[in-house]
Amino acid sequence: MGRYSRYSKPYNNKESDSFPNITDLPDLPPVNWTAIGAQAPILLDTPIDQLPQADVVVITWASAEWAAMEHVFCDSYESMPYSERNTSSWYNWQKYDKDMPPYSSSSSDESWTYWGYYRLAQINNAKVLLFKSNTHLDWPGESYLQDMIQMIITNVSPKLILSIGTAGGAIVTNHEGTVNVGNAGTLYNAGEPPADWPTYGTDWIANWNTISQQNFSQLLFPVPTTQSDLETLCSQFNTNYGTNYTLDQLNADNLDMADSMPQLNNMTQDDSSLLTTSTFVVANNEGNFGTYACVEMDDAIIAEVCQNNNTAFGFVRNISDPVQNATLPTDVQGNWGSAVYDVYGFYTSYNGAIAAWAILNSQFA
């Protein structure tokens, strides 16, 4: 996030329904819990029209992220087809629309009518409220996102809030599918120097015990990038936007080619902050935002509200579109990032959701 909104359309709104279109991509397999002697999350009765109290709230945002959350936390014993990555509702999730503040929009097709969807699960000794947000910094806006986080804290009384999902790369060595876990968020402000951007942090430290187990990698799913598919995506990109770029130009430093196994980085002990933006911002391979863990579109607001309420928080962000080629026009960078995210964000989100589960599995053992 940060360069374009994952909740609406890319920066340059020329995409057709058939772009991008990479075929024969694999389904997500069942989660191999037995590889580390673990148990899948246990689904609990979820009350209707009432947010239950829970030890942890795990929030995700876009459709592909929600599908990955559903697969890991709710229905991990079956494979999930790639075609389900854009599913708009899932069984037994409850819509939450209580105490909505007044809202109006100048756009007739933008109606904000609910906070999000929720479902209750158990991980070891913790009750975990899963929440798919319909409320974002870029839409309906900052004050509404602040209200939502405050509403969750007031009703749920969590010990910890985790935000999980996709992000744009900022670190110039992070390949597609890298997962960065942090505990601080910085709010971008184009009108101020970076030294004056507010940063909100917490002393929560991610527990890495489960992730450190010898066979943990068997729960992960290597992001299925191939040279052939990226070449096809490049060709489709040029056709869609009327351009003539090579893959070497679009695929900065070959970072869109995923590692053979996703890299999971615990950044909660080194004061690393992610960057939250509500506007069109691109991180590039010259390292313009290279001191940040990633670029996304909500988490610093969560951090601000949590900090004001003395509630611990953390972020488990997967790099669904790495840093861009600094020599290309900004809109091209954003549109290429959008295309890579659209194709592979389902897989990167799965590994991020597994990492989030593993952290909670250790913390509440």
Could you characterize the architecture of this molecule?
With 365 residues, the chain is of the alpha/beta class. The chain has a single domain (33-99, 110-363), classed as Nucleoside phosphorylase domain (Rossmann fold, 3-Layer(aba) Sandwich), CATH 3.40.50. 24% of the residues lie in helices and 18% in strands. Strands 1, 2, 3, 4, 5, 6, 7, 10 and 13 form a 9-stranded mixed β-sheet that branches. A 4-stranded mixed β-sheet has the order 9-8-11-12. A hairpin with a 2-residue loop joins strand 4 (116-123) and strand 5. Helix 1 (63-73) runs parallel beside helix 6 and helix 2 (142-156) crosses helix 5. Residues 7-15 have low confidence and may be disordered.
**Can you tell me the CATH superfamily?**
Nucleoside phosphorylase domain
Enumerate how many helices there are, as a single number: 6
Any idea of the CATH class?
Alpha Beta
Order of helices and strands: EEHEEEHEEEEHHEEEHEH
**What helical percentage do the residues reach?**
10-25%
* Low-pLDDT stretches: 7-15
Inertia-based shape: globular
Question: Can you tell me the number of structural domains?
Answer: 1
β-strand percent reads 15-25%
DSSP, total strands: 13
